[in-house]
Each structure stands twice: as C-alpha cells, then as structure tokens.
C-alpha cells in the first residue's frame, strides 16, 4: 500500500516535470520565433530606409543636374546677349558719331 502510494506520487511528479519541460520548450520556441520575426522586420525596415535614402539621393542629384543645366543655359544666353549687345552698342555709338559730325 505504502509502495503503491509512493509509486503513484513518483509517477505524478515525473508527469508534472515532463509537462513543465514541455511548456518551457514551447515557451522557448515561441520566444525564438518572436525574435526571428522581429529581426526580419528590423532587416526589412533597414532595407526600406536604405532604399528611401538612395531614392532621396538620386532625386537630389537629378535636381542638381537640372540646376546646373539651367545655369549653363542662362550663362550661354547672357553671353550671347552680351555679344549681341556689344554689337548694338557699337551701332548706336556709330550713329552718335555721325550725328556729331553732321
């Protein structure tokens, strides 16, 4: 009788221990899964951030390129106007000289 009781208690303890180990294992697996998911999410966010940064840089470079092109065109236009303007001034100056002579 005493032995039977001890045996039952021992079996009960072993069963509880087994359950506890099982629960701990499940908890660990759940935790690992969670960490893995977070790591994946973080990696995705970093990739997205990098992509956005790259696009921003590309946009900025395109903007600078357009600005340089515009400045170059304006400079060429001014130079053409100055060259053309000098010719006009000479003509005006020539007319003034003729008026003075006359």
What does this structure look like?
Helices cover 98% and strands 0% of the residues. The protein is built from one helix and no strands. It is mostly helical and 102 residues long. The longest helix is centred in the middle third of the chain and has 100 residues. The N and C termini lie far apart (149 Å). The chain has a domain of 67 residues. It comes from Knipowitschia caucasica. This is F-BAR domain-containing protein.
Key attributes of the depicted protein:
single chain, 102 residues, mainly alpha, 0% strand
Shape summary: rod-shaped
C-alpha termini separation: 149 Å
What integer value in Å does the Rg equal? 44 Å
Relative helix content:
over 70%
Q: Strand content of the residues, in percent?
A: under 5%
Region (Disordered): 1-102
Biased composition (Acidic residues): 79-95
Biased composition (Basic and acidic residues): 1-35
Protein name: F-BAR domain-containing protein
Quick synopsis:
This protein has 102 residues and is mainly α. It contains one helix and no strands. This is F-BAR domain-containing protein.
Topology:
Layout: H1 2-101
């Amino acid at each position: 009788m005493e032995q039977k009781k001890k045996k039952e208690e021992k079996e009960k303890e072993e069963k509880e221990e087994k359950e506890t180990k099982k629960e701990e294992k499940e908890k660990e697996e759940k935790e690992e899964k969670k960490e893995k998911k977070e790591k994946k999410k973080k990696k995705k966010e970093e990739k997205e951030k990098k992509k956005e940064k790259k696009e921003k840089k590309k946009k900025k470079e395109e903007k600078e390129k357009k600005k340089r092109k515009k400045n170059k065109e304006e400079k060429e236009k001014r130079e053409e106007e100055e060259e053309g303007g000098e010719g006009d001034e000479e003509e005006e100056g020539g007319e003034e000289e003729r008026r003075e002579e006359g």
